[in-house]
From TrEMBL:
NCBIfam families: thiL. GO terms for molecular function: thiamine-phosphate kinase activity. This is Thiamine-monophosphate kinase. The keyword Methyltransferase does not apply. Catalyzes the ATP-dependent phosphorylation of thiamine-monophosphate (TMP) to form thiamine-pyrophosphate (TPP), the active form of vitamin B1. ATP binds at G109, D110, R136, S198. PANTHER family: THIAMINE-MONOPHOSPHATE KINASE. It comes from Sphingomonas morindae. CDD domains: ThiL (cd02194). Its EC number is 2.7.4.16. Mg(2+) 3 binds at D25, D65, D196.
Length: 304
């Protein structure tokens, strides 16, 4: 089943308001923010990626959902399958470093065994607290779409991890994403809606629009492209489209009113699009309409 179809089935079960219609990055129960993301070997990371980096990534992708809700992390719970002893020990070392770096306590979890030869997978629940947790459903017609953080670097890093020669900084974007926690808290008071970019800039922007009952237009040429990414992947239209659909970015996107523009620009966010009445995603490139690609980003699913 496709991921979206499965979540659609779950929505019937998730009627509690804290579930936010399963249309947000996290559940919000009073001022508590709760999220859970998993990593699967071969799907989210490569089998020969360092165990320390896998632990980092597991923490970072969950804290990124807290960042998108403007939350301060309170703690995490780990679900972990035992495998090769050396790998497991390095994972714990990496986890220790990530938790220390983000000043988050490990509160608990569960440890299991896996059938021999099965790929590793692990889950983490992260809890945070936020006074203002912007919902993906809150964008308003006329709001601008803003981006904070880099797009496309992790996608380039995946190619490098697979063996294409390229700079360490891009590889690090893939293996050691940085959740934008402080930035998320600074952006949240301005955001009518906010999300992190995990599946891709285009698909996650389209999800804010869909959750808010709006259309969104993105100026692809307004999406920043770092010199390192341009040198590695090029900066032409097709490479910018690849960057905008690669995912794994853990940047933040938000909908905000014009009045917030100076504050958002001062925080380093970049205006890349606009919400309007209607539905769907439209793209522009150098002032002209550009047909969106068939694939807007990463979607899990099984062909079975
Ligand atoms: N197996 C599941 N059980 C309950 N809720 C789920 C399940 N899978 C997804 N959801 C919910 O669906 C919504 C969307 O989840 P999704 O994973 O797309 O968001 P995300 O975690 O921000 O993105 P990503 O996983 O790409 O980082 C969230 O409310 C999430 O809690
Ligand atoms: C080996 C390997 N191949 C492909 C990718 C790309 N990828 C996998 S899952 C995902 C979306 C985020 O995950 P989720 O939606 O589960 O949070 C992305 C962009 C990767 N990271 N590693
Ligand atoms: Mg998210
Ligand atoms: Mg998720
Ligand atoms: Mg996803």
């Amino acid at each position: 089943m496709a991921e979206a179809d499965f979540i659609t089935r779950l929505r019937r079960l998730a009627t509690h308001p804290a579930a936010r219609g399963l249309a947000d990055d996290a559940a919000v129960l009073g001022d508590l923010v709760l999220t859970h993301d998993m990593l699967v070997e071969g799907v989210h990371y490569l089998p020969d990626d360092p165990a320390e980096d896998v632990a980092w990534k597991l923490v970072a992708v969950n804290l990124s959902d807290l960042a998108a809700k403007g939350a301060v992390p309170l703690g995490v719970l780990l679900g972990y399958p035992l495998g090769e002893a050396g790998w497991d020990a390095r994972f714990v070392d990496g986890l220790e470093r990530a938790l220390a770096r983000f000043e988050v306590p490990l509160l608990g979890g569960d440890t299991v065994s896996m059938p021999r030869g099965a790929p590793r997978m692990m889950g983490l629940t992260a809890l945070g607290r936020s006074d203002i947790a912007p919902d993906r459903r809150g964008a308003r017609a006329g709001d601008d779409l803003w981006l904070a953080g880099a797009i496309g670097e992790a996608g380039a890093g995946l190619a490098i991890a697979r063996g294409v020669p390229g700079p360490a900084a891009l590889l690090a974007a893939y293996r050691r994403p940085q959740p934008l926690l402080a930035l998320g808290r600074a952006l949240a008071p301005h955001a009518h809606a906010m999300a992190d970019v995990s599946d891709g800039l285009l698909i996650d922007s389209a999800r804010i629009a869909a959750a808010s009952g709006l259309a969104v237009t993105i100026a692809l040429d307004a999406v920043p492209c770092s010199p390192a990414l341009a040198a590695f992947a090029g900066a032409d239209r097709d490479s910018r489209l690849r960057a905008a659909t690669a995912g794994d970015d853990y940047a933040l996107i938000l909908a905000a009113a014009e009045a917030s523009a100076p504050a958002l620009a001062a925080l380093g966010a970049v205006r890349i699009g606009r919400f309007a009445a209607g539905e769907g995603l439209a793209l522009r490139w150098r002032g002209a309409a550009l047909a969106p690609p068939d694939r807007l980003g990463w979607e899990h699913g099984s062909a079975l």
